[in-house]
Design a protein that fits this description.
alpha/beta, nine-stranded mixed β-sheet
Amino acid sequence: MKKPIYRKVLLKISGEALMGKQSYGHDQETIQRICADVKAVTAMGTEVCLVVGGGNIYRGMSGAEHGMERASADYMGMLATVLNALALQNELEKIEVETRVLSAIQMMEVCEPYIRRRAIRHMEHGRVVIFAAGTGNPFFTTDTTATLRAAEMGCDAIFKGTQVDGVYSADPKKDKNAERYESLSYSKVLKNDLKVMDASAIALARENNIPIIVFSIHKAGEFSRVVCGEGKFTVIKTGG
């Protein structure tokens, strides 16, 4: 069995990743594959927590662009992340991965409230923890949530599952000459505006010295390979 090089990690998944090839909502086959990858990583002994976006259902920024008051739009986006978290929890538990959803906005009938010590204890007991509803505050993205929760949980790294297998100098789908980086520094990501995560998330990761590993969420088994230091990915770190 491959040996992981990280003992505790946070996986950040965009809401769009759950759509598969659909234009909206959930693609069950895609969710099953992602959850199988999470199970494979936990089976190696690595503690896993997740943050999922809500863009497959509702994006706060889009609502604000169409005239909705920004805070209200962001709260709607947070609720969308709860729907996605529950969908992931359902699939994980179907494959016998004990899972807890912890929401920054209290909704006791469907999930637990976010309490840092409770989340840490769940992970210590081998449960996958899914953080929902962002930070509980408008004007913050789920990228920032991911970095914040990774710092609070004491994670060794943040794994950002994306549409491509790393960070490129340009969109590889539009520019065939785009260069894929093996590693980058936080400063270069910010300076070159590489759009890996928003600036506040990158700055928070740099402040807490948490590496960000960017890989393709659409390649089956890639999460476990990258946790073992294999596969294709870009690592963002101090002096990268």
